[in-house]
Amino acid sequence: MQKKNYENIVKNKGKGKKLFAVLIDPDKFESTEVITNANREGVDFIMVGGSILSNGNFEKCIQTVKKNTSIPILIFPGNHLQISKNADAILLLSLISGRNPELLIGKHVISAPLVKASQLEILSTGYMLIESGKQTAASYISNTNPIPADKNDIAVCTAMAGEQLGLKLIYMDAGSGAQNPINEAMIKKVSKNISIPLIVGGGIDSPQKALLACKAGADIIVVGNAIEKNVSLIESIAKAIHSYKK
Ligand code: 1GP
């Protein structure tokens, strides 16, 4: 288990180097081609998780990924039971954009002993859903309203509060398969007002969009849906993210 993921993220942020995370939904994981491509293109993280797991594939998916790569595996838990000792770290998400107490702290209380026993590196993350055109699974399942896409100040203050509470990362998510990715103005404002690393995802389906998020100040770009549809996108998106220079 690699426990230096946060250190590496911070180090890369310091150098202005952007990181690429490929998100795998265990429900849709059918072939290891995505791992082969991720290995070849130097993807920085494999994230595993999903809002709904209908086939009980979570653990098997993590084991298969692990068997085929040395890229660190980060759990992106769709619920508090998505924990596996076979991953490297867990994004322990507190849904700070919403006002659902269960997702701010309640579920964390229930899963705390399991998280501790897993010995995973814990990446405490302020998770912020941002409105993106149509309702996403994440906002529906979490029973929370996303932050409106044009309310940059609310996003900034939410991220600042997350940092002040001691969270280590902020993840701004337009939601899986979002119609519109998070706009650059919001990313820019948030990144300028926090010093912890900023993850951005949701609706990024091209190298151009990945690059715009990098330019705006995202430190880690997450892509899931677009890669499920076209695995060869890993190459062009990895090149765009890794060749980014300030
Ligand atoms: C979803 O941010 C992730 O929670 C990735 O979104 O699947 O739209 O790339 P996509």
Q: Explain this structure to me?
A:
- The protein has 246 residues and is α/β, with parallel strands linked by helices.
- The protein has a single domain, classed as FMN-linked oxidoreductases (TIM Barrel).
- The chain has ten helices and eight strands.
- It has helices at 5-15, 33-41, 58-68, 101-118, 137-142, 152-164, 184-193, 207-216, 225-229, 233-242; strands spanning 19-24, 45-48, 73-75, 89-95, 121-129, 169-173, 198-201, 220-223.
- Strand 7, helix 8 and strand 8 form a beta-alpha-beta unit.
- Helix 7 packs parallel to helix 8 (207-216).
- SN-glycerol-1-phosphate (1GP) is lined by residues 23, 173, 175-178, 201-204, 222-226.
- Residues 23, 173, 175-178, 201-204, 222-226 line the site of SN-glycerol-1-phosphate (1GP).
